Known about the structure:
The protein is α+β, with helices and mostly antiparallel strands. The protein has helices at residues 43-55, 103-112, 128-134, 198-215, 234-240, 269-287, and strands at residues 16-20, 32-39, 60-63, 69-71, 76-83, 88-91, 94-98, 115-116, 137-138, 141-142, 147-154, 158-163, 184-192, 194-195, 247-248, 251-253, 261-263, 296-298. It contains six helices and 18 strands. The mean pLDDT is 96.
Amino acid sequence: MIAPLPFTIPHPERLRTDEPLARHTAVRLGGPADWLYIAQESVEELEAVVSAAWAAGFPLTVLGGGANVLISDAGVRGLVVINAVTAVSFNAEIVTVSAGHGLSKLARKCAASGLAGLEWAASIPGTVGGSVVNNAGAHGGDIAGCLVSADVLDARHGRRTLRVGDLAYGYRTSALKAQLDRRFLVLAATFRLQPGDPAASAARIDEVVAYRKRTQPPGASLGSIFKNPPGDYAGRLIESCGLKGLTVGGAQVSPVHANFFINRGGATASDYNALIDQVQAAVLAATGFRLETEIERMGAW
Length: 301
Ligand SMILES: Cc1cc2nc3c(=O)[nH]c(=O)nc-3n(C[C@H](O)[C@H](O)[C@H](O)COP(=O)(O)OP(=O)(O)OC[C@H]3O[C@@H](n4cnc5c(N)ncnc54)[C@H](O)[C@@H]3O)c2cc1C
């Protein structure tokens, strides 16, 4: 039996307790959150819940689509807030979107509205918030290449607008990702795109989606597990070590793409984590490369 939250939030009836996070992650893994709140209504609602938790010094984790996180079987203590607030506005080439909006849906909306420059994002799962934190990218594009600024609520500094140059973007990293205490919340992002032809953007999106269908496996996964080392590809290195198909419990190195690990059903987060460790160790022993994870582990291991 879990006690009520020791602070007040606007809609306590929306709280779930002991909620399996496997229901909220792309790889369908992860034990329970003590409390889970899904903010859907407004940025103000989200801000109120997160600020109350910070003010109470309460453990808080923010998730978007759960597409880049491996959550332990023990789950996450304290309050997990899922940002599902979606609002978007267009002003000529400037697009302002709340961080809970799906990134791929945004790419399609922009394309349909005659704005080009986000087609690369059309099949990246997760939210704008997670992609701003991670500098998500694919097919030659990334967030750093089209973001103007992000509105961020910070436990220390309050609400502020960070320009793209403030975010120290690099390959799948940012100043936000490097902030280890994670006491910030991305509320919204502003992108600058280019006037485009909706039909040309739709055709580019079709190409991107078709490429991914051809080269990446279906099924529950976290996308690329490891970052590509300079001048090489993590998938190529893993494959060169003969690790395609390697299995731990219900977790498998995809026979289609060696940097994708699939939950074939019945995997635990521990299986998945052990597979990551085994692959990292085997690649290090065989090639001398220590692959760095692109995904983030959460919870107690
Ligand atoms: C099949 C598949 C394919 C993928 N392909 C790609 C790809 O091509 N390129 C790529 O870059 N990534 C790819 N990914 C990884 C993933 O889609 C991205 O990292 C995505 O940006 C994660 O967004 P999310 O909302 O799911 O973040 P989450 O996984 O929910 O969270 C990631 C991190 O961001 C933080 N966070 C999320 N939202 C907020 C917020 N509003 N405020 C503060 N912190 C927040 C979380 O606390 C966590 O630290 C893929 C994943 C899958 C499953």
